[in-house]
Task: structure prediction
Amino acid sequence: MEKRLFSGIQPSGDIHLGNYLGALKNWVALTKEYDSIFSVVDYHAITIPYDPSVMQQKILDAVAVCIAAGLDPNNCTLFIQSTVPEHTELAWILGTVTRMGDLERMTQYKQKSQQFNQNINLGLFAYPVLQAADIVIYKAEAVPVGEDQVQHIELTREIVRKFNATFGDTFPEPQAVLGKARRILGLDGQAKMSKSMGNTISLTEPAQVIQMKLNKAVTDPARIRRTDPGNPEICNIFSLHQYFSSEDEINHISFECRRAGIGCIDCKKILGEHIIAELSPINETYQTMRHDHDYLRQILETGSQRCRTIAQETMATVREKIGLR
Ligand code: TRP
Result:
Protein backbone atom coordinates (compact mmCIF):
# COMPACT_ATOMS: atom_id res chain seq x y z
CA MET A 1 0.00 0.00 0.00
CA GLU A 2 1.15 3.49 -0.81
CA LYS A 3 1.96 5.71 2.13
CA ARG A 4 -0.43 8.55 2.61
CA LEU A 5 0.36 12.23 2.20
CA PHE A 6 -1.67 15.22 3.30
CA SER A 7 -1.27 18.93 2.76
CA GLY A 8 -3.45 22.01 3.04
CA ILE A 9 -3.69 25.16 0.98
CA GLN A 10 -5.16 28.45 2.13
CA PRO A 11 -7.90 29.94 -0.07
CA SER A 12 -6.21 33.29 0.28
CA GLY A 13 -6.23 34.35 -3.34
CA ASP A 14 -3.11 34.80 -5.36
CA ILE A 15 -0.66 31.95 -5.48
CA HIS A 16 2.80 33.36 -6.14
CA LEU A 17 6.09 32.03 -7.40
CA GLY A 18 7.23 31.31 -3.83
CA ASN A 19 4.19 29.08 -3.18
CA TYR A 20 4.58 27.46 -6.56
CA LEU A 21 8.28 26.61 -6.24
CA GLY A 22 8.17 25.98 -2.48
CA ALA A 23 5.02 23.86 -2.34
CA LEU A 24 2.83 23.24 -5.36
CA LYS A 25 5.51 21.94 -7.72
CA ASN A 26 6.73 19.60 -5.02
CA TRP A 27 3.19 18.34 -4.45
CA VAL A 28 2.78 17.46 -8.10
CA ALA A 29 5.97 15.37 -8.01
CA LEU A 30 5.01 13.64 -4.76
CA THR A 31 1.59 12.47 -6.02
CA LYS A 32 3.52 9.87 -8.04
CA GLU A 33 4.78 8.23 -4.85
CA TYR A 34 2.01 8.73 -2.32
CA ASP A 35 -1.71 8.34 -1.82
CA SER A 36 -2.10 12.12 -1.78
CA ILE A 37 -4.85 14.19 -0.21
CA PHE A 38 -4.97 17.98 -0.55
CA SER A 39 -7.42 20.20 1.23
CA VAL A 40 -8.47 23.80 0.81
CA VAL A 41 -8.42 24.79 4.46
CA ASP A 42 -11.34 27.16 4.76
CA TYR A 43 -11.76 26.62 8.51
CA HIS A 44 -8.20 27.83 8.92
CA ALA A 45 -8.78 30.80 6.65
CA ILE A 46 -11.58 32.24 8.80
CA THR A 47 -9.27 32.75 11.77
CA ILE A 48 -8.15 36.06 10.27
CA PRO A 49 -10.32 38.84 8.79
CA TYR A 50 -11.86 37.88 5.42
CA ASP A 51 -14.73 38.73 3.10
CA PRO A 52 -17.47 36.05 3.17
CA SER A 53 -18.89 37.21 -0.16
CA VAL A 54 -15.77 36.16 -2.10
CA MET A 55 -14.84 33.11 -0.03
CA GLN A 56 -16.42 30.53 -2.38
CA GLN A 57 -14.66 31.91 -5.44
CA LYS A 58 -11.36 31.98 -3.57
CA ILE A 59 -11.81 28.34 -2.59
CA LEU A 60 -12.52 27.37 -6.20
CA ASP A 61 -9.57 29.51 -7.37
CA ALA A 62 -7.24 27.61 -5.06
CA VAL A 63 -8.45 24.31 -6.51
CA ALA A 64 -8.19 25.60 -10.08
CA VAL A 65 -4.61 26.78 -9.51
CA CYS A 66 -3.64 23.40 -8.09
CA ILE A 67 -5.06 21.55 -11.07
CA ALA A 68 -3.68 24.04 -13.59
CA ALA A 69 -0.23 23.69 -12.01
CA GLY A 70 -0.31 19.94 -12.53
CA LEU A 71 -2.21 18.19 -9.75
CA ASP A 72 -4.20 15.51 -11.52
CA PRO A 73 -7.61 14.94 -9.89
CA ASN A 74 -7.46 11.35 -11.13
CA ASN A 75 -4.28 10.78 -9.22
CA CYS A 76 -4.92 12.61 -5.96
CA THR A 77 -7.80 13.65 -3.75
CA LEU A 78 -8.89 17.28 -3.54
CA PHE A 79 -11.54 18.52 -1.13
CA ILE A 80 -12.71 21.43 0.97
CA GLN A 81 -11.88 21.04 4.66
CA SER A 82 -15.23 22.22 6.02
CA THR A 83 -17.11 19.58 4.02
CA VAL A 84 -15.57 16.93 6.27
CA PRO A 85 -16.80 18.05 9.70
CA GLU A 86 -14.83 15.31 11.45
CA HIS A 87 -11.75 17.57 11.19
CA THR A 88 -13.18 20.00 13.74
CA GLU A 89 -14.52 17.19 15.88
CA LEU A 90 -11.09 15.60 16.13
CA ALA A 91 -9.49 19.01 16.70
CA TRP A 92 -11.57 19.40 19.87
CA ILE A 93 -10.37 16.05 21.14
CA LEU A 94 -6.72 16.74 20.24
CA GLY A 95 -7.10 20.05 22.04
CA THR A 96 -7.31 18.12 25.28
CA VAL A 97 -3.80 16.70 24.78
CA THR A 98 -2.24 19.95 23.54
CA ARG A 99 -0.35 22.18 25.95
CA MET A 100 -1.27 25.86 25.97
CA GLY A 101 2.41 26.66 26.38
CA ASP A 102 3.24 24.88 23.14
CA LEU A 103 0.61 26.88 21.24
CA GLU A 104 1.88 30.13 22.74
CA ARG A 105 5.30 29.42 21.28
CA MET A 106 4.07 29.09 17.68
CA THR A 107 5.74 31.67 15.45
CA GLN A 108 2.76 31.94 13.09
CA TYR A 109 0.41 32.61 16.00
CA LYS A 110 2.71 35.32 17.33
CA GLN A 111 2.98 36.92 13.90
CA LYS A 112 -0.72 36.79 13.11
CA SER A 113 -1.82 38.01 16.50
CA GLN A 114 0.46 40.98 16.03
CA GLN A 115 -0.76 41.60 12.47
CA PHE A 116 -4.45 41.21 13.32
CA ASN A 117 -4.39 42.52 16.87
CA GLN A 118 -8.03 43.65 16.73
CA ASN A 119 -9.18 40.04 16.80
CA ILE A 120 -6.83 37.68 18.60
CA ASN A 121 -9.30 34.82 18.76
CA LEU A 122 -9.38 31.28 20.06
CA GLY A 123 -9.49 29.91 16.51
CA LEU A 124 -6.20 31.60 15.70
CA PHE A 125 -4.67 30.17 18.87
CA ALA A 126 -6.00 26.66 18.19
CA TYR A 127 -5.09 26.80 14.47
CA PRO A 128 -2.21 24.28 14.83
CA VAL A 129 -4.52 21.82 16.62
CA LEU A 130 -6.91 21.84 13.66
CA GLN A 131 -3.91 21.42 11.38
CA ALA A 132 -2.86 18.38 13.41
CA ALA A 133 -6.38 16.96 13.09
CA ASP A 134 -6.29 17.54 9.29
CA ILE A 135 -3.21 15.36 9.05
CA VAL A 136 -3.84 12.59 11.54
CA ILE A 137 -7.49 11.98 10.68
CA TYR A 138 -6.12 10.39 7.47
CA LYS A 139 -3.17 8.82 9.32
CA ALA A 140 -0.97 10.65 6.85
CA GLU A 141 2.75 10.07 7.25
CA ALA A 142 4.12 12.69 4.87
CA VAL A 143 3.26 16.38 4.96
CA PRO A 144 4.85 18.49 2.22
CA VAL A 145 5.04 22.08 3.46
CA GLY A 146 7.19 25.16 3.33
CA GLU A 147 9.79 25.81 6.02
CA ASP A 148 7.43 28.11 7.89
CA GLN A 149 5.10 25.18 8.65
CA VAL A 150 7.71 22.82 10.09
CA GLN A 151 7.00 24.05 13.61
CA HIS A 152 3.34 23.09 13.22
CA ILE A 153 4.27 19.59 12.05
CA GLU A 154 6.61 19.20 15.02
CA LEU A 155 3.71 20.15 17.28
CA THR A 156 1.51 17.62 15.47
CA ARG A 157 4.07 14.94 16.30
CA GLU A 158 4.04 16.03 19.93
CA ILE A 159 0.22 15.85 20.02
CA VAL A 160 0.31 12.39 18.43
CA ARG A 161 2.84 11.15 21.01
CA LYS A 162 0.71 12.47 23.85
CA PHE A 163 -2.48 10.98 22.40
CA ASN A 164 -0.90 7.59 21.72
CA ALA A 165 0.69 7.50 25.18
CA THR A 166 -2.60 8.37 26.88
CA PHE A 167 -5.09 6.32 24.87
CA GLY A 168 -2.98 3.68 23.09
CA ASP A 169 -1.35 3.58 19.69
CA THR A 170 -3.70 5.29 17.24
CA PHE A 171 -1.88 7.69 14.91
CA PRO A 172 1.47 7.53 13.10
CA GLU A 173 3.84 10.47 13.69
CA PRO A 174 3.77 12.48 10.48
CA GLN A 175 6.89 13.94 8.92
CA ALA A 176 7.33 17.26 7.16
CA VAL A 177 8.62 16.89 3.60
CA LEU A 178 10.60 19.88 2.40
CA GLY A 179 11.26 20.49 -1.27
CA LYS A 180 14.48 21.70 -2.89
CA ALA A 181 13.23 25.27 -3.03
CA ARG A 182 13.54 26.32 0.60
CA ARG A 183 13.48 30.07 0.75
CA ILE A 184 12.36 31.96 -2.29
CA LEU A 185 13.13 35.63 -1.81
CA GLY A 186 10.85 38.32 -3.16
CA LEU A 187 11.71 40.75 -5.93
CA ASP A 188 13.23 43.08 -3.31
CA GLY A 189 15.91 40.41 -2.81
CA GLN A 190 15.48 40.90 0.95
CA ALA A 191 12.38 39.31 2.45
CA LYS A 192 10.78 35.95 1.75
CA MET A 193 8.38 36.21 -1.16
CA SER A 194 4.98 36.89 0.36
CA LYS A 195 1.79 38.64 -0.55
CA SER A 196 1.90 40.92 2.49
CA MET A 197 5.37 42.14 1.48
CA GLY A 198 4.21 43.09 -2.02
CA ASN A 199 7.33 41.49 -3.51
CA THR A 200 5.73 38.68 -5.48
CA ILE A 201 5.22 37.43 -8.98
CA SER A 202 1.77 35.88 -9.11
CA LEU A 203 1.09 32.69 -11.04
CA THR A 204 -1.87 34.38 -12.66
CA GLU A 205 -0.15 37.55 -13.82
CA PRO A 206 -0.06 38.63 -17.47
CA ALA A 207 3.29 38.00 -19.18
CA GLN A 208 4.09 41.71 -19.64
CA VAL A 209 3.57 42.34 -15.93
CA ILE A 210 5.94 39.49 -15.04
CA GLN A 211 8.70 40.92 -17.22
CA MET A 212 8.06 44.44 -15.97
CA LYS A 213 8.28 43.33 -12.33
CA LEU A 214 11.51 41.46 -13.05
CA ASN A 215 12.98 44.50 -14.75
CA LYS A 216 12.52 46.45 -11.53
CA ALA A 217 13.73 43.65 -9.28
CA VAL A 218 16.83 44.05 -7.12
CA THR A 219 20.02 42.34 -8.35
CA ASP A 220 23.57 42.36 -6.99
CA PRO A 221 23.62 45.65 -5.04
CA ALA A 222 27.36 46.13 -5.67
CA ARG A 223 26.89 46.16 -9.43
CA ILE A 224 26.01 49.74 -10.18
CA ARG A 225 27.17 50.29 -13.77
CA ARG A 226 26.76 47.91 -16.66
CA THR A 227 30.56 47.68 -16.84
CA ASP A 228 30.94 46.56 -13.21
CA PRO A 229 31.62 42.85 -12.85
CA GLY A 230 28.75 41.15 -10.95
CA ASN A 231 28.52 38.61 -8.14
CA PRO A 232 25.92 36.01 -9.08
CA GLU A 233 26.16 34.31 -5.67
CA ILE A 234 24.55 37.31 -3.98
CA CYS A 235 22.08 38.11 -6.76
CA ASN A 236 18.47 37.07 -6.26
CA ILE A 237 17.75 37.09 -9.98
CA PHE A 238 20.59 34.64 -10.47
CA SER A 239 19.18 32.42 -7.75
CA LEU A 240 15.81 32.38 -9.52
CA HIS A 241 17.58 31.16 -12.67
CA GLN A 242 18.30 27.93 -10.76
CA TYR A 243 14.62 27.03 -10.97
CA PHE A 244 13.95 27.96 -14.57
CA SER A 245 17.10 27.80 -16.66
CA SER A 246 19.24 24.95 -17.95
CA GLU A 247 22.60 24.17 -16.39
CA ASP A 248 24.43 25.39 -19.50
CA GLU A 249 22.57 28.66 -19.41
CA ILE A 250 23.23 29.14 -15.72
CA ASN A 251 26.96 28.51 -16.22
CA HIS A 252 27.01 30.90 -19.14
CA ILE A 253 25.22 33.64 -17.19
CA SER A 254 27.43 33.18 -14.16
CA PHE A 255 30.59 33.41 -16.29
CA GLU A 256 29.45 36.42 -18.30
CA CYS A 257 28.06 38.29 -15.28
CA ARG A 258 31.39 37.98 -13.45
CA ARG A 259 33.25 39.61 -16.33
CA ALA A 260 30.50 42.14 -17.12
CA GLY A 261 29.87 40.36 -20.41
CA ILE A 262 26.15 40.32 -19.75
CA GLY A 263 24.10 43.04 -18.06
CA CYS A 264 21.28 42.68 -15.56
CA ILE A 265 18.68 43.67 -18.14
CA ASP A 266 19.65 40.81 -20.45
CA CYS A 267 19.88 38.38 -17.57
CA LYS A 268 16.37 39.36 -16.50
CA LYS A 269 15.10 39.04 -20.05
CA ILE A 270 16.27 35.43 -20.21
CA LEU A 271 14.78 34.65 -16.82
CA GLY A 272 11.51 36.34 -17.75
CA GLU A 273 11.18 34.30 -20.92
CA HIS A 274 11.62 31.05 -19.00
CA ILE A 275 9.24 32.01 -16.21
CA ILE A 276 6.63 33.12 -18.71
CA ALA A 277 7.04 29.92 -20.73
CA GLU A 278 6.36 27.86 -17.61
CA LEU A 279 3.61 29.98 -16.12
CA SER A 280 1.56 31.05 -19.10
CA PRO A 281 0.05 27.63 -19.87
CA ILE A 282 -0.78 27.31 -16.17
CA ASN A 283 -2.36 30.73 -16.16
CA GLU A 284 -4.34 30.03 -19.31
CA THR A 285 -5.80 26.82 -17.89
CA TYR A 286 -6.51 28.55 -14.62
CA GLN A 287 -8.37 31.47 -16.17
CA THR A 288 -10.90 29.18 -17.86
CA MET A 289 -11.09 26.53 -15.18
CA ARG A 290 -11.84 28.94 -12.34
CA HIS A 291 -15.18 29.74 -13.95
CA ASP A 292 -16.07 26.10 -14.55
CA HIS A 293 -17.75 25.70 -11.19
CA ASP A 294 -19.54 22.48 -12.18
CA TYR A 295 -16.28 20.78 -13.02
CA LEU A 296 -14.53 21.97 -9.86
CA ARG A 297 -17.48 21.18 -7.60
CA GLN A 298 -17.68 17.69 -9.00
CA ILE A 299 -14.02 17.01 -8.25
CA LEU A 300 -14.41 18.43 -4.76
CA GLU A 301 -17.51 16.35 -4.07
CA THR A 302 -15.74 13.15 -5.12
CA GLY A 303 -12.82 14.09 -2.89
CA SER A 304 -15.05 14.97 0.00
CA GLN A 305 -16.88 11.66 -0.16
CA ARG A 306 -13.67 9.71 -0.05
CA CYS A 307 -12.33 11.79 2.82
CA ARG A 308 -15.54 11.51 4.84
CA THR A 309 -15.35 7.73 4.64
CA ILE A 310 -11.78 7.67 5.95
CA ALA A 311 -12.44 10.37 8.55
CA GLN A 312 -15.53 8.61 9.91
CA GLU A 313 -13.59 5.39 10.33
CA THR A 314 -10.84 7.18 12.22
CA MET A 315 -13.36 8.95 14.42
CA ALA A 316 -15.04 5.68 15.34
CA THR A 317 -11.70 4.35 16.57
CA VAL A 318 -10.88 7.58 18.36
CA ARG A 319 -14.21 7.74 20.19
CA GLU A 320 -13.78 4.19 21.35
CA LYS A 321 -10.22 4.80 22.55
CA ILE A 322 -11.14 7.85 24.55
CA GLY A 323 -14.16 6.19 26.14
CA LEU A 324 -16.92 8.01 24.25
CA ARG A 325 -19.32 6.59 21.75
N1 TRP B 1 -1.13 26.03 7.87
C1 TRP B 1 -0.86 25.70 6.50
C2 TRP B 1 -0.35 26.96 5.78
O1 TRP B 1 -0.59 28.05 6.22
C3 TRP B 1 -2.07 25.17 5.79
C4 TRP B 1 -2.53 23.88 6.39
C5 TRP B 1 -3.66 23.63 7.09
C6 TRP B 1 -1.84 22.64 6.32
N2 TRP B 1 -3.75 22.35 7.46
C7 TRP B 1 -2.65 21.69 7.01
C8 TRP B 1 -0.62 22.24 5.76
C9 TRP B 1 -2.26 20.38 7.14
C10 TRP B 1 -0.22 20.92 5.91
C11 TRP B 1 -1.04 19.99 6.59
O2 TRP B 1 0.25 26.84 4.73
About this structure: The mean pLDDT is 95. The pocket of tryptophan is lined by residues 6-8, 10, 41, 44, 131, 134-135, 143, 145, 149 (CB under 6 Å). The chain has two domains: 4-185+293-322, 204-286. The first helix runs from residue 17 to 30.
